[in-house]
Amino acid sequence: MINWFVKTFPNVAALGWTGDAGWGTAIFQTLFMTFWSAIFGGFLGIVFGLLLVLTKPGGVLANRFWHNVIDKLISILRAIPFIILLALIAPVTQKIVGTQIGMKAALVPLTVGVFPFFARQVQVALESVDAGKIEAAQALGATTKDLIFDVYLKESRGELIRISTVTLISLIGLTAMAGAVGAGGLGNTAISYGYNRFANDVTVVATLLVVLLILLVQLVGDLLVKKLSHQRRR
Amino acid sequence: MAQIELKHISVDFSGQDAVRDVSLDIEQGDILGVIGYSGAGKSTLVRTINLLQQPSKGTVKVNGQVLFANGQQQVSAKQLQASRRKIGMIFQNFNLLEEATVFENVAFALKHAGLPDDELEQRVNHLLELVDLQSKAEAYPVQLSGGQQQRVAIARALANKPDILLSDEATSALDPKTTKQILDLLYRLNKKLGLTIVLITHEMDAVKQIASKIAVMKNGRVIEQGPLLDVFLQPKQKLTQEFVGGALEVQEILEKYHFQNLAPQEQLVQLVYQITDVTQSVLADLDQAIGTKASILYGNVEQIGGQPVGTLAVLLPLTPEQEQTAKEFLASRHVLATKLDKEVLTDD
Hints:
The structure holds two protein chains of two kinds. In chain A, 81% of the residues lie in helices and 0% in strands. Chain A is mostly helical. The N and C termini of chain A lie far apart (51 Å). By secondary structure, chain B is α/β, with parallel strands linked by helices. The longest helix of chain B is centred in the middle third of the chain and has 18 residues.
């Protein structure tokens, strides 16, 4: 079996499991980048999405000035193509991480790239919470904190998980792109060790692993939505 | 001092006056029915009581505390939250938290009550018992019927032992049977806990069933208010007459008779009276007093504010002297008599 594998996919086997070019290293790097940028980007996305909804006219903390500032900031950040963003914020990355290459350095552009995208979706999810629920909670004497955690975030949790799944999937796509410019991971393997060296079997296996990861994320996401959402289907 | 005092309240929605210069006193223990067609400003007016809607002008005073005056809120955000916990509110769409169980929905209202876990659980269970939903504590709202959801909303609204309950079209999304159950529950709570209830509705039946007082709204103004029975017996405004229904229904029935040949001395009279002594027949006594026979063209008895009230439309042959006697007799029996215009009633 192993012999057959080595014979059929010689380049795949040659990369090995450990080492700089190893499959284990690449998988770890992809997971590392996805995980941490999802944490940072997810946090920022929820904060900014919340701020957009809370500060909107008629909102709980209505403030036209800040609403406009945040709204414009997100629109501008979202308009920058990721591949350009990678280069554009390299000096910032240098300041924060101390280097411009490697998987840790990639976390900065990944976070900046994903959070505005996520914030917009969080905004939509939170706005789908019926204004009547907010009003009823206010009538019960709920504080702003109660409104955020017990009403906005909890009532939209099904929707939040759904958009997190979508965002996580596109984030995996972004890590592959970051990989191509020196951050490592499965994207790097597919391009540097596969495509550039005419080793098509490496490209195919790297792609399969990425697809597998995405399917897994989708599966877990769907299961969570099913388990945690009690809303009437609209 | 009234429990809720609204003085010269106006609410301006970008140039459009939703509420115009309304003053309303609501006494402790009242069930005030606020009635009017949609867009009359009922909900907006009632939302100024707990400041879910800030007025543009006027004074809001609840339980002796001035919440709003001189164009601004008079209490801090924290104080307002505390005051709101003493003013329960229920809604047409129930507005329960759908990702929380029935128990959690009620417990949410008690989040700032500072109760230890076991007392909190006890209180929530007691509230669920009050609305007869103990068995549904672990259910999610989506699994409940509309009436059950509204009962959860009532339990939630009562969690902090408020003295006031605002009901914003709370029965409008429910079927007639469930509506009656919810109204009965509100009436019971009013009697048992002395809860002051402000009932916004466009259904006169709801008001007739439980209200003690009524305010009629049109175009942002309260055009008529007073004890329900008084307003029902003597509606002054045309809209009020429409809502109290009597007038319209009587007219509709009378039109069916096609009065073409009424003798000049024949009179159509509407009699409205509270039925206090069931052994007395107003009409038989009237016949005896004036020595003639009244013919009944319309008759109805309904409950107004818990009191049976009769409405009769009768045809009476009356000479001027008889008319005088009849007037005196009816006044002595506290019967409200109104002559109906024959011309209007001759249909075609």
